[in-house]
Amino acid sequence: MTPTAAPPQDPLEDLGNLSPAQLIDVITDAERQIRALTARQVQATARYAHLMATEPGGEAATTREIALARHVSPHTATSLLTAATVLTTQMPATLAALRDGLITEHAARTVVTATGHVSPADRARIDDRMRREYRRKGVGHRYLAGAARALADAMDPAAAVARNQRAEGTRRCSVRPGLDHMTYFTAVGTPTHNLTLLTTLRRAAADQLRANPHDERTEDQAMYDVLFARVTGLDLVTDPLPITLELVMDEAALLRGGNTSARVWCDGIDGGPLPARQARELVLDAAERDQTWVRRLYTAPDTSPAAGELVAMDAKSRLFPPALARYLRRRDQVCATPWCQAPIRHVDHVTPWARGGRTSVANGQGLCRSCNYTKDLPGFTTTSDDRGRTVLTVRTGHRYRREPPPVLGHPTLPERRTADRRREGRRATDTSTATRDRPRAGGPPPRSGDGPGTIPGRASPPPPRAGGQRVASRSWSLLTSPLT
Q: What is the dihedral of CA 380, 383, 388, 391, to 10 degrees?
């Protein structure tokens, strides 16, 4: 009789009986296994690309399939596919170092990138020279990338100069969301230019701090203030900002002091969640200048399986009207391709108009440029339902699903929403009284108890007017309200 194999054990099952030293051994061994599995994944990626090279759709289709399989964006998948091809065909020593746990996948990719301007033959020689560096103890990916780049520059100096000159053409500025309602402003440029910027800002900040001994700002804070003032010509504290902010807020949070976080957008850039109190501050600031407009969006009821999701709008034209396109951008928030996360640049049909697709919420989606240009590749099909949930099928028959996130970009706490609604009933009279008895803008601060929508120590402005967006407005508010 053939003995049956023992069932696999949960690797976390017996961790409670291990000593601290044994736990470190488990962590080390797990990291080694992760790197070995990553090397296998690299080999599978390169093999798949080779097998599909002559299939309809070509490299663009393969890149999208790798992105979906690895749950990353197509942009990241392009880098992964390039690295996999190079590692398996030109840099076997680097792939072996990854398989043996000597380096990480990120380190292997940085070495591939650093040697991108040399010929395959030179790359193979660099790979052989890097064997010793991979076994050097205690060094990280920056050292390895620098060592590989130095070897590449020495082998082909002319190509190195040409690469640097091309790179200067990619100088740019960008913004991406951070934590705690902050963002990262990034300037990509040459070391000389960026170091000059940093030194100039540091000197100007130091001058300001020396001129005012009572200034409590740190050097970093003063540097940012100098940057903002010199680029915009505005005072960070006193001057209104000449931009349009879009706030997606729960109605109770705006009008009745609820605590559900809002979401802020500016020129299509997602600023992330914003505490309800700060969102009300933004609305009040704009309302004092008569620059707040309200547009009402509707979501499904809390009792619905689609709770928190936007509900339908339709249009008769082939192109999506501005209001419907804006609606879809707020529903999808980022590119609707699973795991892409790129900003929405195009609003288009799921089922093409030429094949009978309607111009509607159910058949519309927001996509980045790359995904919109490649969504109709041979072997790729996308279907959707009336809630905007899509199913993307690729050439191998694998299916990938995506559903729109909640309209506020985050889940809400049911018990807190219930408490907010109870407060709505108790405070309805207080809110009406506060609105009726509010002082004029610039007058004395409101009395305590003027209602949950007021900010202590500030006058309550007139309520926002309903209507369309005002192009020159500083900010406007989008409300969400459950259907009943």
A: -60
Tell me the C-alpha distance between 407 and 208, whole Å: 43
Contact 177, 270 (CB under 8 A): yes
Neighbours of 52 (CB within 10 A): 19
d(CA 346, CA 359): 14
Q: Dihedral angle at the C-alpha atoms of 297, 302, 304, 305, nearest 10 degrees?
A: 100
136: pLDDT strictly greater than 80: yes
- Tell me phi and psi for residue 282, to 5 degrees: -60, -45
- Which DSSP letter does residue 300 get? B
Q: pTM, whole model, 2 decimals?
A: 0.70
pLDDT digits (tens, 9 = 90+) for 289-323: 665 556 555 555 555 555 555 554 445 556 788 87
CB within 8 A of 368, min separation 6: which ones?
Answer: 335, 337, 340, 342, 343, 344, 345, 346
CA neighbor of 208 nearest in space, from 197, 195, 221, 198: 221
In this prediction, residue 319 carries a pLDDT of 76
> Residue 362 and residue 356: Cα distance in Å, rounded?
13
Q: Which residue has the higher pLDDT, 413 or 117?
A: 117
Number of neighbouring beta carbons within 10 Å of residue 110: 21
pLDDT of residue 215 exceeding 50, the answer is yes
Q: Nearest-CA neighbor of 114 among 164, 157, 148? A: 148
Which segments within 322-457 are labelled E, that is strand? 346-349, 359-360, 364-367, 381-384, 390-393, 399-402
Contact 258/235 with Cβ under 8 angstroms? Answer: no
Instruction: State the DSSP string of 232-294.
Output: H-S-TTTSPP-S-EEEEEEHHHHHS-----EEEEETTEEEEEE-HHHHHHHHHHHHHTT--EE
How do the residues of the chain divide into helix, strand and coil, expressed in percent and rounded to 5? Answer: 45, 15, 40
Q: Which residues contact 180 (CB under 8 A, 6 or more apart)?
A: none
Name the β-bridge partners of 366. 347
Contact criterion met (CB below 8 Å) for 197 and 204: no
Q: Are strands 475-482 and 293-299 parallel, antiparallel or unpaired?
A: parallel
Cα gap 117→129, rounded to integer Å: 17
Q: What are phi and psi of 82, to 5 degrees?
A: -60, -45
Phi, psi of 479 (to 5 degrees): -100, 150
Nearest to 46 by CA among 102, 122, 100, 98: 98
What one-letter code names the amino acid at 61?
A: A
Q: What is the 3-state secondary structure (H, E, C) of 83-96?
A: HHHHHHHCCHHHHH
Based on its alpha-carbon atoms, the radius of gyration of the chain, rounded to whole angstroms, reads 28
Residue where the block lists tokens 């969102």: 279
Answer yes or no: are the C-beta atoms of 476 and 470 closer than 8 Å. Answer: yes
For 384, the token pair is 């959707």
